[in-house]
TrEMBL record:
Record InterPro entries: CdaR-like_regulators (IPR051448), CdaR_GGDEF (IPR041522), PucR_C-HTH_dom (IPR025736), PucR_C-HTH_sf (IPR042070)
Family the entry assigns: Belongs to the CdaR family.
Protein name according to UniProt: PucR family transcriptional regulator
Domain PucR C-terminal helix-turn-helix: 283-339
A Pfam family: GGDEF_2
Gene3D superfamilies linked to this entry: PucR C-terminal helix-turn-helix domain
Domain CdaR GGDEF-like, first and last residues per copy: 115-233
Species per Swiss-Prot/TrEMBL record: Streptomyces longisporoflavus
Length: 352
């Protein structure tokens, strides 16, 4: 079948409409409009270009207008009605196809990040989106002050920057649970670094976490979970670094692997601080600032908006209550580990 024959399929009945309009000056009936819409939908579903279809309709209108017809206005009105209905059907089918594609993409992303699908089938579906799951991948997750969805200005701006810089490099950009997500081959660390830079800027100073590279179809899930865990750790520990790498935070899961042992350390080491005036929290904040500032009294005092004298008094108070001297290297390790545990276990707000 030639292209001309294919186009003629979507002009079915159009010549008769022109002839009737030319002879009587009437307008199209509801049934005729529905018929034009249906043909438009069929043309869109068959992926025919609208420009060629419009040209064919106009050519047919010129060809089939009988000589000595009624007023040109009547004929043009019918042609306009027919084309409007045809275009409406065409666009309706396109919108339905877009919605279907978006739904399929969202389903794939959910299955990819949660590992809910058969891995063999998931790998086949991934190729449609430019991913080769047999290779190693790493996942970066960015969060901001707002929740983002695909199509929002923030994800679009990051996507434009990524495409402009890297083009098609088997990268997947999406959103999940209000966060920006980038999946990239593990051997292209510059891609995730670039994503982190632009996501940080686009989210007005949000925070980005990068999971460790993982191999195989299930690797994306593992790297994604590591990135999420890194963001959760940052929130609980008060880490303000703009970019967090899960590989740099491995010590924290190790420390909390035995939760009961960590709870015992926290209570036995820091429990006496609860007897201080004002409770344990101010002194825990003192220790946290001390360790976060590299054990420099002046810097830690500045962070807490205290005088150095007041800060030093607090350290002395901690020493007296716990028997552990923050300035002593041996005691310092125990105290710092206990402070990390208190943050992770939300102590003393959550009693153990």
């Amino acid at each position: 079948m030639t292209e001309r024959d294919v186009t003629a399929t979507y002009l079915e009945g159009f010549a008769r409409l022109i002839a009737d309009a030319s002879a009587t000056g009437r307008r199209l009936t509801r049934h005729e409009l529905d018929s034009r819409r249906s043909l438009g939908e069929q043309a869109a579903e068959a992926s025919h270009g609208m420009r060629d279809l419009m040209a064919a309709h106009l050519a047919a209108a010129r060809t089939h207008r009988p000589a000595g017809a009624a007023s040109s206005d009547s004929v043009l009105a019918v042609v306009a009605q027919a084309l409007d209905a045809f275009t409406e059907g065409y666009e309706r089918a396109q919108r339905a196809a877009v919605r279907q594609e978006e739904a399929a993409r969202r389903e794939f992303i959910d299955d990819l990040l949660y590992g809910r699908s058969d891995m063999g089938k998931l790998s086949e579906r991934a190729e449609r989106y430019g991913l080769r799951l047999s290779y190693a991948h790493a996942v970066a997750v960015a969060r901001g002050t707002a929740a983002y969805e695909e199509g929002d200005p923030t994800p679009r701006s990051v996507e434009r920057a990524m495409v402009s810089r890297f083009g098609d490099r088997h990268i997947l950009l999406t959103t999940k649970d209000g966060r920006l997500v980038c999946v990239a081959p593990a051997d292209q660390d510059e891609v995730l670094a670039f994503f982190a830079k632009h996501a940080y800027a686009a989210t007005d100073g949000g925070q980005v976490a990068i999971g460790r590279p993982q191999s195989g179809p299930g690797g994306v899930v593992q790297s994604y979970e590591q990135a999420l865990n890194a963001l959760e750790l940052a929130e609980r520990l008060g880490l303000s670094d703009p970019v967090l790498r899960a590989a740099d935070l491995l010590v924290y899961p190790v420390l909390t692997r035995d939760r009961q042992a960590m709870a015992d350390l926290v209570v036995n080491t820091l429990g006496p601080l609860q007897h201080a005036r004002g409770g344990a929290k101010p002194l825990i904040e003192t220790l946290a600032a001390y360790f976060d500032s590299g054990c420099v009294n002046a810097e830690a005092a500045r962070r807490l908006a205290l005088s150095v004298r007041a800060f030093t008094y607090r350290l002395d108070r901690i020493h007296k209550l716990t028997g552990a001297d923050p300035a002593d290297p041996v005691h310092r390790y125990t105290l710092q580990t206990a402070i990390i545990g208190a943050r992770l276990l939300d102590w003393p707000d959550q009693q153990m």
